Amino acid sequence: MKVRSKKAPIKWPKFNTHLNRYESVTDHTYAKFDYSDCPYNDSLPIEARIKCRLVHMDGNSIVVPDFILLNDGGWIQPLFFNAPRLAQFSEKPHSCDLYIDIQNGKTIKIRFYSNGLLKEFADKSHLYKCELYGPSDIQKYSSGTYFEENGQILLHLFHHTNDAGFDGINKSLSLWASRWNYRGSKECINYNFVYFTHIPEITYDSDLITVAMSVDGKLDYIVDSFNGPAPSSPNFREDYKEFIYTAEVYRSTSADRNCPIDFDISIEAIDIKHLYLHHQGYSYFYEVCFPYIHRLKTLPEAVVSFNKEFIIESNPAIVNSDYAIVGDARSKEGLAAPFDEEDTSFIFKIEDCQGRTIHDYWFNHSNQDLFTLKKVKELKVEAVTENPTNK
């Protein structure tokens, strides 16, 4: 049986490079990313691995990085990234460069080659050996830990619950999938979800926000075009309503999530995350939505079991998405898209490379429409009167 994790007291204000936040005795303040270009292009590369996949939007294709695996057992969650730079040579291997923003405002470069493919996962993603161009102390910026067993990569993650949930989960060695969508406003009919995070404790209200919850049941997002003063007045939502999307989310407190349970979860069981597309003049980049949330997608009313070591491996109840949301951050509708994920007008579709590398598939299908005719299984939801957002 798992033992309730004890929260270590914070003795001084400090910046936690693993969780991208300032920590004090009274609060956690999560840092905003301040892009300052990549200073590591000419540094000595560090050996690592990257889990990524090829996806298509209407008129565009990109490579989405899921996780970066360091050789010391740490993994990094990408926060932002640019469109890929693929290079085709007369003789293989072909290459792909990704510029990825990680914790503490660091921008690293990942380069992987077509001859570096290690594995093609069931969720249509690939695992490649890669060269990481970043700070020499890259281990400081890992988001969590992983280990490998029986050919599986298992991420160490946490499920936060209350006293009753803690006891029930430990006793049954199982987790009931939730029927609620990300913001707890609608019931999902054809798929359910189990939620995890790499944050080891939910101590303050700011921690709740990272897992799409809040004390007042609201989260605010600002469109890219908003250049006015930072909203600070009590009526800022009304004053700047043209530029602010307010998501009504699951209302909770840190006291409701005071019992963390840690799990080791197969990396290919974790569902792909949604994205935001940002524009800055003539350039654009992608933001990973809800980067602290890692969820398993399941069949309706599923029970996800685990063993006595609290390992979640492949499970018949777990399914993988074939599409995800890419919300255009220039509009309120685009900001709302990852929360209203059943709206498939803002989507990207995942490519099944069928044994070929991302590089080969990219160059062999250039200038083709790989989006329109690709079928996806859309999430179906229904609105309900009683839900966690209005309790």
What does this structure look like?
The protein is mainly beta and 391 residues long. It has one domain (14-390). Helix content is 8%, strand content 39%. The chain has 5 helices and 31 strands. It has helices at residues 163-172, 205-210, 236-239, 332-336, 358-364, and strands at 14-16, 21-23, 28-30, 46-57, 60-70, 74-76, 80-81, 85-87, 95-101, 107-113, 117-120, 126-133, 144-149, 152-161, 174-176, 186-188, 192-197, 213-214, 218-222, 244-248, 250-251, 259-266, 275-280, 283-288, 293-298, 303-305, 311-312, 318-319, 323-328, 347-350, 381-383. The strands form 7 sheets. Strands 4-12-10-9-7-24-23-29-30 form a 9-stranded mixed β-barrel. Strands 1-2-3 form a 3-stranded antiparallel beta sheet. The chain has a 3-stranded antiparallel beta sheet with strand order 17-25-28, with no helix packed on it. β1 and β2 (21-23) form a beta hairpin. The longest helix has 10 residues, at 163-172. It is globular, with a radius of gyration of 21 Å. The two termini are 32 Å apart. The mean pLDDT is 90.
